[in-house]
Amino acid sequence: MATSSSLRDLTKMERIGAHSHIHGLGLDDSLEPRQTSQGMVGQVKARRAAGVILKMIQEGKIAGRAILMAGAPGTGKTAIAMGMAQSLGADVPFTMLAASEIFSLEMSKTEALTQAFRRSIGVRIKEESEIIEGEVVEIQIDRSTTGLGQKSGKLTLKTTEMETIYDLGAKMIDALNKEKVMAGDVITIDKASGRISKLGRSFTRARDYDAMGSDTKFVQCPEGELQKRKEVVHTVSLHEMDVINSRTQGFLALFSGDTGEIKSEVRDQINVKVTEWREEGKAEIVPGVLFIDEVHVLDIECFSFLNRALEDDMAPVVIMASNRGIARIRGTQYKSPHGLPVDLLDRLLIISTTAYSEDEVKQILTIRCEEEDVAMTEDAKDILTRIGMETSLRYAIHLITASSLVAKKRKATAVDVADIKRVYSLFLDEKRSVQMLKEYQSQYMYNEVDMDDREPAIVQHASAAAGSQMDTTA
Ligand SMILES: Nc1ncnc2c1ncn2[C@@H]1O[C@H](COP(=O)(O)OP(=O)(O)O)[C@@H](O)[C@H]1O
Ligand SMILES: [Mg+2]
Prior knowledge:
39% helix; Rossmann fold; five-stranded parallel β-sheet; CATH 2.40.50.360; binds adenosine-5'-diphosphate; alpha/beta; Helicase, Ruva Protein, domain 3; eight-stranded mixed β-sheet; binds magnesium ion; 18 helices
């Protein structure tokens, strides 16, 4: 039922995933980023900007806005998005999508995007349910002497004003037993589902305190009628409503994830229904967040779909991330900043992330060491930081666990400089790998890199890494 919980659970299960050290954006109450907080280090400007967006989302004020996080690889774009996801309220949906996920044979690209959009819109539905709330005066259960046959019994409940005796069936007796309900407890029974919950012990029984132990909660005996109406609120996403109401699929598809394409009539019906509920005050829309990582992988058809979809009055906040410079827009021959068409760029607020300083890299590495449960000497951290600065942050992060395995092999308790050196020589980073290719390229298969065919960002990257020599050999 809960919309965002499935995603949250997944991130929780990701034991030491790439971003498991991130617990939020690390902002203080006035939305100022702390230098290091909640696993986040530096990147202060981008975090401040993300904090402002977050605030707007939490207030439910904006919908259909789009933000682009632009920056070089490994500058924390995905990390900031994860931080935002963790700071959102429990019932604000957050959907994460790698742009390549939408290229599937089972459904069209636009269908996949539509589903992602609708997953990111929550509908908060208010329902009134009838409950019985009172203090248990007496539970009387009649057991047949054989132990067979139907159990039956009586439950006496009271409020400050009235007292009523209810007949109990076998199911209710089991439920009462399971909750260990006794005389003197204050309980609620949901009339529709029969679910029993214990609120605490009645104050009138406070003199039993010694017998009950110190963790007992005491509550007032309820006032007024035994039967009450209570408002329950739960949030589902538009997509979940689509799936449940799509006749060919049914709600089982929610569990298998095998939803297929959903007919547009179904969506129209849901939209009409939700609008009705909103007018009647039964439901409200909770615009969530759709995060599209590596957005430059989308093609021109998807971009024009996005342009249109962002104008819908039930659109979520879309956050995109791209690490491209001036790059070709997929599906066209045109080059454009970040690999996105200019008309889409025009709708975006751009947050840029910048390279980390040496201190920041060291701090991130320290946090990752803790997260991966690796003890490392100060000297080793310094050298790993240098490696991080000269190669990439990701490469340095990857060396942490590898070096701890090497350290373990020599039965050391902490990773030292020698271990880092060892793994550094075992695993090549991108620059040394290119160097290697340059030296031995004649021995590899398909050695026919034509630089002109490749996208500019990669060419720049590779040629910068390989030096000018590579260009002449290609
Ligand atoms: N400011 C930061 N604080 C803490 N960890 C970070 C920060 N920036 C990046 N990282 C970590 O560094 C790694 C690479 O960052 P990532 O967000 O994946 O880069 P990008 O998405 O920009 O390519 C990830 O493991 C990420 O969690
Ligand atoms: Mg990323």
